[in-house]
Amino acid sequence: MLELDQNEVLIKVFRKHIFHFLTQACGLIIVAILPLMAYPFTEAFLFPDSPAKLGYLSLFIYFMYLMVLWNIGFIMWTDYYLDMWILTDKRLIDVEQKGLFSREVSSLRLDRIQDIKLQVSGFVQTFVGMGSVYVQTAGSEKEFIIRNAKHPEQAKDLILAAHNKQMEATKTVRVETTNTPSIPS
Amino acid sequence: MSMLNEAQFSFSLNEILAKIPVSALWIALSVFVGLSLILGAALLYHWNKYKLHSPNTDMTRIVYLLGIFLLIALCATSLVFFNA
Q1: From CA A160, how far away is CA A173, in angstroms rounded?
Q2: Contact B78 A67 (CB under 8 A)
Q3: Residue A45's pLDDT is what?
Q4: CA-to-CA distance for A83 and A103, rounded, in angstroms?
Q5: pLDDT at B54
Q6: pTM of the predicted model, to two decimals?
Q7: Three-class DSSP category at A147
């Protein structure tokens, strides 16, 4: 679990759209059903004069296959579930889960943001409200990309608003610093 | 000559499957179950460590464990019937 600084306020947690996971899950379901659909057609070639007992062996192999797919499905879900972007009043944190044992957490100070680009491409993304938000930074730091995010417009607006607020706060501090009367020596 | 080659190299899936000893299938199942349990433990560790909203995590944990134990039971049952 990530821990924020003491006076850091959490604004929003962005996640990938559930549709992205569902498309992967549908692919997995098709892969799971495929042997069942193919079995009646291939049975005659594979087991031309087979005793009924071999049917149980086929079932055993199929259930083991399902066990592998079940685990793959939940690895996909973990990947979906643990990928997130956390916006606070000071920074944007990118948490990226890569497989089961690799995790990358990087954070970007809001005042380093230079440009925010929103990309919604295609009918499906427009229809389900999914898109990518590209956050470009000053300097040669890596570009922050919120891929397949849910409500990308809202994500962009919130990041922009937090960035503007942060910049205003920085300016205010500078003005206050310059206006402070100097103590005569 | 060609008839001889066909006789030598043709094979039947039935024969191959019939040659697999049941004990080997039980060992294969044990290996699969062991690997699945290790993977399941890793998944549960991740969900517990990084959870942000627990109701979803709890439901996922229940569904995952139910599914994996059901599949293990089905594998074992089909092996028992195969062996009978």
Answers
A1: 20
A2: no
A3: 66
A4: 9
A5: 57
A6: 0.76
A7: strand
pLDDT higher than threshold 50 for residue B1 = no
Mean pLDDT of A86-97: 88
Dig out the tokens for A185 from the structure: 């020596």
Instruction: Name the token pair of A39.
Output: 């079995």
Question: What pLDDT, on the 0 to 100 scale, is given for residue B68?
Answer: 92
Report the amino acid identity of residue A73.
G
Nearest-CA distance from B4 to chain A in Å? 22
Q: Which amino acid is at A158?
A: L
B71 vs A contacts (CB less than 8 Å): 63, 66-67, 70
Quick one: tokens of A6?
Answer: 């003491």
**Rounded to the nearest 10 degrees, how much is the dihedral formed by the CA atoms of A98, A102, B57, A71?**
70
| Cα separation, A169 vs A58, whole angstroms | 67
* Complex ipTM: 0.77
Query: Is A147 within 8 Å of A16 (Cβ atoms)?
Result: yes
| Contact criterion met (CB < 8 Å) for A60 and B42 | no
Please, are residues A114 and A136 in contact by the beta-carbon 8 Å criterion? yes
